């Protein structure tokens, strides 16, 4: 199938725009590659420190410099359900490396916070910055420079993007991501959302709410809704950083441990000591990023990836923009409905044919590039194959489902849920923003209503409880951008706004903060840039201003004749500067770039 003309054109312009930065990046990777295996150049004392804790036989193998050494960067902690299974992974990886004639060591750990814990809490102001802190922590671990390849263990919201940034900066090394998979399904997501709204409306007590939440989040593994964590897993597989079919097998599935061991052995086969040298810099190509964007749109994925994709790409010398995302959205049909865009979760998506079916459909329609390098070998077509247990317990790959096994979840490109992707760019006299419309009913794609301006989430909740929002309203929440307070997610407002919408009001959200990977039925113009603290137009909005949000036309504007002549307001942000470690991130707030370039302290 020939490549879609828009996909081809967007790819070409990204390559043109990135020519100098990509060339400089690849030149840096070439120099690192040509330096050879660092252990060969270490002094005896240095190498002794590397091998000191290893068993004698493994120590001898490492000292010989011929056996590849696999560094493990782990985000394990047992508070975060998605990362609790990683406790066992280093042992499995060492076994696999030993069987393949190599060695493996935990090179370092990185922080991993759970946005589900910090939603609506002060700690959420560290969440976005944790991505870049994770990249830095991974770099510290890998700076020992004694590894031939890297296995990354990390799945959730900011963790996987931070690790991809680190993988890019050590792109002369082969890398693989070894996921743990989603938890088994618990309380249905639609029921959970209903109970949250009942609590917000004062119809049920906290004990009832807590029982429901415990029934939904109940086991090791990634939360089952299609938020940022599971969007990350889709992205890593579509970009060729996972083994085919690795993303969504449950932690307790028989095949999970085999996938982990197979992945460790596979990345050792990709080192410069073998015949299939595949450095991460060659996997992280422009075409791979375009494939990732198409996967994001085809699945109706997380709004957070509109920031993370830009930061990850820049780490690999690729300049990706919201224009690129928007243009690809225009030609990518939405062919998956996973909660919050539908009623079913990722386990149902996996059972219906999952990514193997989705990639087959996108390749067949010319929406994805097949000519890419992956950890499985050259060609994205490999990712249309499902992993199965072979007769000796090994992994064998078989053709995935040729047809969807449940068209309520997964459809062919020829019969999509909607003709365009789930994420769109908005522009107007407020700057530019991102909106996710895959879960928003078409009759709510255009909202024109008076503004009510707030400077924090708690003020919105207080106004709701006081009955001040009982009518058509666009809630404007400003001073929530990366420079102001780290750009926290405002997902805790979803139940409140959902109640207002269910009462029949025309409701929307406009903010320079983030919403959530679980953004759902409320029209939300988020990541608004420039942000208020930088004097962005959002700082000139007043209560009562009519705002028009038109997702179809891609427009976000204030309908006030004197709007451009107003002076922006300022806010006292002293309360955001200390507590829960926020004072340690003052340099991040001072250095961070705008959302439209990835909200990174690096680029």
Structure overview:
With 603 residues, this protein is α/β, with parallel strands linked by helices. It folds into three domains: 5-35 and 67-184 and 219-399, no CATH class; 188-217, no CATH class; 423-597, IlvD/EDD C-terminal domain-like (Glucose Oxidase, domain 1). It is built from 22 helices and 16 strands. Strand 15 (546-550) and strand 16 (555-558) form a beta hairpin. The longest helix has 16 residues, at 19-34. The mean pLDDT is 93.
Structural class: alpha/beta
Which bin fits the share of residues in helices?
A: 25-40%
Overall outline:
globular
> Could you state the oligomeric state of the chains shown?
single chain
Number of domains: 3
Instruction: Please give the alpha-carbon distance between the first and last residues.
Output: 36 Å
Rg on CA atoms, Å: 24 Å
Biggest sheet statistics: 8 strands, mixed
């Amino acid at each position: 199938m020939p490549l879609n003309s828009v996909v081809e054109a967007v790819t070409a312009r990204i390559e043109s725009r990135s020519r100098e930065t990509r060339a400089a990046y690849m030149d840096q990777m070439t120099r690192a590659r040509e330096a050879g295996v660092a252990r060969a150049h270490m002094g005896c004392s240095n190498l002794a420190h590397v091998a000191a804790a290893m068993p004698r036989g493994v120590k001898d193998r490492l000292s010989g410099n011929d056996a590849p050494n696999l560094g493990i960067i782990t985000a394990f902690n047992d508070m975060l359900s998605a990362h609790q299974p990683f406790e066992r992974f280093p042992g499995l990886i060492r076994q696999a490396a030993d069987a393949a004639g190599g060695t493996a060591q935990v090179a370092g750990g990185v922080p991993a916070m759970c946005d589900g814990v910090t939603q609506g809490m002060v700690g959420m102001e560290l969440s976005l910055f944790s991505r870049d802190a994770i990249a830095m922590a991974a770099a510290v671990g890998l700076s020992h420079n004694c590894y031939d390849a890297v296995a990354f263990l990390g799945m959730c919201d900011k963790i996987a993007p931070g690790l991809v940034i680190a993988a890019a900066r050590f792109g002369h090394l082969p890398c693989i991501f070894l996921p743990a998979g989603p938890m088994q399904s618990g309380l249905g997501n639609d029921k959970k959302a209903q109970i949250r709204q009942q609590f917000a409306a004062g119809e049920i007590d906290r004990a009832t709410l807590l029982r429901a939440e415990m029934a939904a989040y109940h086991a090791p593994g990634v939360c089952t809704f299609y938020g940022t964590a599971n969007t990350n897993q889709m992205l890593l597989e579509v970009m060729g950083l996972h083994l085919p079919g690795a993303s969504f097998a449950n932690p307790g599935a028989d095949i999970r441990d085999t996938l982990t061991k197979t992945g460790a052995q596979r990345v050792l086969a990709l080192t410069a000591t073998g015949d299939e040298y595949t450095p991460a810099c060659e996997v992280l190509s422009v075409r791979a990023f375009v494939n990732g964007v198409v996967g994001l749109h085809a699945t109706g994925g997380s709004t957070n990836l509109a920031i993370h994709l830009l930061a990850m790409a820049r780490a690999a010398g690729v300049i990706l923009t919201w224009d690129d995302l928007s243009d690809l959205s225009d030609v990518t049909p939405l062919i998956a409905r996973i909660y919050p865009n539908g009623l079913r979760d990722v386990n149902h998506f996996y059972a219906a044919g999952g990514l193997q079916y989705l990639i087959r459909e996108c390749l067949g329609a010319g929406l994805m590039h097949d000519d890419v390098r992956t950890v499985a070998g050259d060609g994205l077509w490999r990712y249309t194959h499902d992993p199965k247990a072979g007769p000796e317990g090994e992994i064998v790959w078989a053709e995935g489902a040729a047809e969807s096994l449940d068209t309520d979840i997964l459809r062919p490109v020829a019969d999509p849920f909607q003709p365009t992707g789930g994420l769109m760019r908005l522009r107007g006299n407020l700057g530019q923003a991102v909106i996710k419309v895959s879960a928003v009913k078409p009759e709510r794609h255009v909202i024109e209503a008076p503004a009510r301006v707030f400077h924090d989430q708690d003020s919105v909740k207080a106004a709701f409880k006081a009955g001040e929002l009982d009518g058509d309203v666009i809630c404007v929440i400003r001073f929530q951008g990366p420079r102001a307070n780290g750009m926290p997610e405002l997902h805790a407002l979803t139940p409140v706004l959902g109640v207002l919408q269910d009462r029949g009001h025309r409701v929307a959200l406009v903010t320079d903060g983030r919403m959530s990977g679980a953004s759902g039925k409320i029209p939300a113009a988020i990541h608004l840039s420039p942000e208020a603290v930088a004097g962005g137009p959002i700082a000139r909005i007043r209560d009562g201003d009519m705002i028009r949000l038109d997702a179809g036309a891609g427009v976000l504007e204030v309908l006030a004749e004197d709007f451009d002549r107003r002076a922006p307001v300022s806010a006292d942000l002293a309360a955001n500067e200390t507590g829960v470690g926020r004072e340690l991130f003052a340099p991040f707030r001072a250095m961070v770039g705008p959302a439209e370039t990835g909200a990174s302290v690096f680029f």
